[in-house]
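Q: What changes when fructose -6-phosphate is included in the input?
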Amino acid sequence: MCGIVGGVAQRNIVPILLEGLKRLEYRGYDSAGLAVINNQTLFRKRELGKVKGLEALLQVDPIFGPIGIAHTRWATHGKPSTENAHPHVSSNKVAVVHNGIIENHEPLRGALIDEGYLFTSETDTEVIVHQLYQTMEHTQGFLKAVKLMVKKLEGAYALGIICTEEPDTLIACRKGSPLVIGVGIGEYFIASDVAALLPVTQRFIFLEEGDIASISIDKLIIYDANDEVVTRPVKESQLTADSVDKGDYRHYMLKEIYEQPFAISQALEGRFINNRLQENCFGHKAAEVFDTIKSIQILACGTSYHAGLVARYWFERLARVPCNIEVASEFRYRNPVLAENTLIVTISQSGETADTLAALQEAKRLGAKYSLAICNVPESSLVRESDLVLMTRAGPEIGVASTKAFTTQLTALMLLVIAVGRRFELTEAMEQKISSDLFKLPRKIEAVLKLDDQIKVLAEQFAEKEHALFLGRGSHYPIAMEGALKLKEISYIHAEAYPAGELKHGPLALIDSEMPVITVAPNNSLLEKLKSNIQEVSARGGQLIVFMDETLASAASENVQIIKVPQVENEISPIIYTIPLQLLSYYVAVLKGTDVDQPRNLAKSVTVE
Ligand code: F6R
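A: The predicted holo structure follows.
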């Protein structure tokens, strides 16, 4: 998704902007650009494609300046092209970078065209810059004009704006899209997330909804949504510039797959005493909220939604807690009925997913009293807007395909199952058993990661395939869904997941010797049923790859390959079976030569609807 970097410094800002853009690459983008002001003149460079293309352009034709804004664009309005890349400018005096969507851009554009403004792009963003220039023609001062201009905008935006008439001031605005201010020594920066600015500062101010900041070298003034001057706290980030490095790994995704034992140990750290969960880890109001609730409604998107699907099995099977789950983008427009005393549980790696945030708002509008966020980004919008929070502590996840964020979400969700389940039918003995199993996870995952070489070989069978099916049953059906999502998003192989029992109701027609069928087969009460489903595929010549518990007798044959997964306790087994599927997608994508960490068309943090 679009990324913003900007700054006012006592040095040339261009290398800082470029480094910031590189650190935002993981969000997904199709073009990049930057603009600086030097001696009251605006200079701009834009390029279709990667930041290194922009960098090459700047090497040939450099620009300099102490104040500037930069952007990676993820196309929404208008195709990826140099003309549509940000910054957008008006009369070569004002330049804007934007993350979000201006919903009323069409009427604004029409009115500006009528006034003679010439549009050079198809973007919604270009209306912002012309609207600002038009406002400045009748208004004294850059800041005042920005404040008037944003009143005309409907939709979501994070903005970085510079203007040659006040060449020492950078203005930042936030409404519906995240923006942070980095506090340097005698300099300030802005960015869509802290990762962009870690080489220059670890001190951050998180702008709130409706904030407008006027920033110069020696002065930062923040106005809130009511135009009052406010002081926002400066927070010290625990992250360092190195924490988002790839190290010796070929891709972030592989690094993040391998980080899972540590990430899960972090997710558990300090949250149990003697195998008893300390429920204040959800926040100081946790006990009061959990005592009241009668059911759970989970809202999330993509991989986070899959984590929620697993949790529904856990909530209902282990604790008899009624649990619903819905994709956030559907929930927000369905006008659903919410039972009284339902706890809204949102799950999001980034905490900035527009659909999930909107679904939470919708749940509140429908009368939900309590909300809980499972999230990986401490200062994110979702965290701020929820009553209770459980941080997943996965550490920064840079690969667009979610891996460690997913398994730590599952871990966190199991803690929630315990906390709520205690008030239902989850006994102390069950809690002790689940806790001790959770603490075994890091070692178990280390053992599963040893399948790496075997899976690398297996991946070779996929390089030429166009389709794949994933099967699972019970709480492993969402793991099959997650396996299919990983494969399609990074290798571009079309993949579908089915609950194995559903196969005979239609998808069996797809089975032939060209169709790989990946099956998740842990040793649980559904195994015998699953074996029958495997037979159905095998009898029709399908190419089966079965991830199976090592303790089970295997029946490999010409068209059935068995991958033995280390034995694992029943409840936590969905977390374990995720790992080989992540590795499989990864190695297939590497063989296909795709852009593993930044797959085409995708964004890491989906801040638009
Ligand atoms: C897939 C993936 C996405 C995200 C989805 C929600 O690998 O990462 O499906 O899970 O866009 O994002 P978050 O979790 O940030 O709300």
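Observations recorded in class: Residues 301-304, 348-350, 353, 356, 401-402, 485, 489, 605-606 surround fructose -6-phosphate (CB under 6 Å).
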